[in-house]
Design brief:
The structure holds two protein chains of two kinds. Chain A is α+β, with helices and mostly antiparallel strands. Chain A contains two helices and four strands. In chain A, strand 1 and strand 2 form a beta hairpin. In chain A, helix 1 packs antiparallel against helix 2. The two termini of chain A are about 25 Å apart. Chain B is mainly alpha-helical. Helix content of chain B is about 80%, strand content about 0%. Chain B contains four helices and no strands. In chain B, helix 3 packs antiparallel against helix 4. The radius of gyration of chain B is 26 Å and the shape is elongated. The two termini of chain B are about 20 Å apart. The chains are: A alpha+beta, B mainly alpha.
């Protein structure tokens, strides 16, 4: 049972947005990685969310969110002519990761703002609980 | 209960026969108290149990918060928000407990101030 209502819903959302931030961090960190354990250049990862039912004791079912999966972006990466590169093909072209830094920055800002929005919900819920305790003062 | 409240103002002027007629009303007025078990404490530890439950709930929440915080500090989990949320939850539960305690003390003092 929660004293601060809705905080279990928001907790799931916060975890999901954190996961998104982590994936953005991974994409930016691997923006130049041309060799991965799976072979080939790094592929940009995309996070998708799905709803998750949260059952409260004596309450109705509410929908929280969790990460349903992390999938790879299949767009082909840029070909760069660099014959000295160890991963260059016979024609001297290196396939770079399909990470676009501008996209990643936008994703970063979106995830960060979404996280902040959920934090505001927590703050508001806590304020409401504290105000409720002031009934009759 | 309203019948009891109205009796003292009308009582001095009443003949004995009308007073007899009022007696059943008095009993009716007393019956709800019996129904609520106010006069006979059949469950003496009920209130103590409720308080005990409240305190142990607050204690459990604080234990959970400190457990989560310890996990984050030890690096077992990176769910920082869960730790902070649990701390807020524990803090709110503690405030609720303090509110209940304040209300109890207030009622006790109100009783002590009562004119006998």
């Amino acid at each position: 049972m929660n004293i601060i209502s809705g905080i279990d819903i928001t907790s799931g959302a916060l975890a999901a947005q954190r996961m998104r931030l982590d994936i953005v961090a991974q994409n930016i960190a691997n923006a130049q990685t041309t060799r991965t354990s799976a072979g080939g250049p790094y592929q940009r990862q995309i996070v998708s969310f799905e709803t998750e039912m949260v059952k409260r004791s004596g309450g109705q079912m509410l929908q929280s969110v969790h990460v349903s999966g992390v999938t790879a972006d299949r767009t082909p990466g840029q070909q760069v002519y660099n014959p000295q590169h160890p991963d260059a093909g016979p024609d001297g072209l290196v396939t770079m990761p399909n990470v676009n830094l501008a996209y990643e920055m936008v994703d970063l800002i979106t995830a960060s703002r979404a996280y902040e929005a959920n934090l505001s919900v927590v703050k508001n819920a806590k304020n409401m609980a504290m105000k409720t305790l002031e009934i009759g003062k | 209960m309203s019948s009891i409240g109205s009796i003292p103002s009308t009582l001095p002027g009443l003949p004995a026969s009308q007073l007899q007629g009022l007696l059943p009303q008095l009993k009716v007025g007393a019956n709800p108290a019996d129904a609520l078990h106010l006069s006979q404490p059949s469950n003496p530890e009920g209130f103590g149990k409720m308080l005990d439950g409240l305190v142990s709930m607050v204690d459990a929440k604080q234990a959970q918060a400190s457990d989560l915080t310890r996990k984050v500090l030890l690096g077992d989990t990176d769910q920082l928000h869960q730790s902070v949320i649990a701390m807020q939850e524990a803090s709110t539960a503690f405030s609720l407990m303090v509110e209940v305690r304040n209300k109890l003390v207030e009622s006790y003092q109100e009783l002590m101030r009562m004119q006998v």
